[in-house]
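REQUEST FORM: STRUCTURE PREDICTION
Request ID: SP-0412
Submitted by: Lab K.M.
Chain count: 1
Length (residues): 286
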Amino acid sequence: MRNAVAVITDSIACIPRDLLERFHIGVIPLNFYANGRVYKDGIDVTPSEAYKLFLEDPDTFKTSGASPADCEEAYRLAARQGTDILAVILSSKLSAIYSTAEDAGVHIQAEFPGISVTVLDSRTAAAAEGLVALAAARVAQAGKSLPEVTAAAERARDRVQIMAYMDTVRYVYRSGRIPHIASIAGSVLKIRPLFTFSGGMPRFVGAVRSKPAGIERLLADLREKVNGRPVHVAVMHVYAEDDAIRLKDRVAEEFQCAELWLTEFSPLMGYACGTGTLAVAFYPEE
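STATUS: Completed
RESULT:
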């Protein structure tokens, strides 16, 4: 039976393919440039393939946004089925895709009278955004209305958190969170930064000297914030699958996970974070 509401997100949410298919979530691909060619994130190339392109020639790797045509096409696929649409989108403070998605929604509502489109600012990124979209999709699969699906997404958005360990500061200055001179000093001192999200923006929250110390900080943060409650968790990595699998196994052993999945960062985020990055996104159940 077709859902009354279609949930759509963007490729930055890095939801694994099996979950996208299970919950019928549409994806707006963002774009990047490498070796003089434009790639659609998650369509033309996998994250691992994109990281190989980046490592081979980082100077030609440039990020871009989503095209209005791609936004409209994602909406159109849902609207043709006669469903209302909720689009869970990357933080509006990080990208213009939010305004692009809003404009596309206006066009689609004019093209398909009777279809309602709501665009929700996730105020976060990566798998934290993905967790918000999945919370909405589960309610949509239960046959709920657009206001009910949107409310579920908002509840998840208000609770979701993310903590990331970066194996290098070499590339993070591209994000604007630290000056270039600080990234050089950090590389010399072999400092590994820790970031979280607050107010729709990444925030530097500390540093460690090694990957094992970084992993322990991620787990400690999760432990403190969850406080024994059932929790929805996504483990992310940038070209560091073995480390991510070990981290996911530790999360599964220690926490009561209502949801736990592993994913790669979108290459558009991996570009700023650098290979070796590990992160956990999570929210405790109410």
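NOTES: The chain has two domains: 5-30+65-159, 161-284.
Reviewed by: T.R.
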